[in-house]
Amino acid sequence: MSIFRIFGKRQSTDGVALRGRQDERPRISLDAKIILSPRKVIKCSIANIDGTGAILIVPIVLGLPTEFHLQENSGRTRPVRVLRRGVSGVAVKFV
Fold it and tell me: What one-character DSSP code corresponds to residue 87?
């Protein structure tokens, strides 16, 4: 699934102009979990990932907080911040 199909026109949530990516992120499909609290977990898929962030395919974008923890299928958990929201996914930055 293309990033542009998920997000449409590229835009910033904080008013800062977006620059084009220097390198393309490789497309993958990994199962992951969004950890909101010990009892609140949302299953998602990682569409692509690099050292700075990822694109997540999520069942529900509305109500997703700006910051949460992402647990990869390897068990690695990282704090993330949402940069953009789309119809079926979110772009996150590792913090």
Answer: S
- Rounded CA-CA distance 53/46 in Å is 10
Strands 67-72 and 53-57: unpaired
Amino acid in position 17: A
The 8-class DSSP code of residue 35 comes to E
Residue 44 burial (CB count, 10 A): 22
Domain range 3-15+24-94, CATH architecture: Beta Barrel (2.40)
pTM here? 0.73
pLDDT in tens, 12-47: 444 444 455 555 656 678 999 999 999 999 999 999
- The domain ranges of the chain are 3-15+24-94
Q: For residue range 41-83, what is the model confidence (pLDDT) as tens digits?
A: 999 999 999 999 999 999 988 899 999 999 999 999 999 999 9
Whole-angstrom distance, CA of residue 8 vs CA of residue 85 = 10
